[in-house]
Design a protein that fits this description.
- This protein is mostly helical.
- It has 2 helices and no strands.
- The protein has a domain of 41 residues.
- The protein is flat, with a radius of gyration of 21 Å.
């Protein structure tokens, strides 16, 4: 991973996909940072690490709800916003 303008790469990626072109393999490598961002949001914004129960069923319920909340928030953030008309403005 060598961003434009940097003197050296910031990360190296190893792959066992020799038949793939770089244009196909690079997006796969970049998914890791996207997954890390999602996991960090699950912990910080949706309480993934706050479960203190003892049962697998309770933990599974907690993780499912946190994941659903992240999915909802992500879809809502990506949805186009309707144009607002300010009251009193000429249309």
């Amino acid at each position: 991973d060598w961003p434009f303008g940097r003197p050296e790469p910031r990360a190296y990626w190893l792959t066992n996909l020799p038949a793939r072109r770089l244009a196909e393999a690079l997006p796969l490598a970049q998914l890791r940072s996207l997954a890390g961002t999602g996991l960090r949001r699950l912990h910080e914004d949706f309480g993934l690490g706050d479960f203190e129960g003892r049962s697998f069923r309770g933990w599974h319920h907690h993780v499912t709800l946190a994941s659903a909340a992240l999915g909802y928030a992500s879809l809502r953030a990506a949805a186009p916003r309707p144009a607002r008309v300010l009251s009193g403005s000429a249309v």
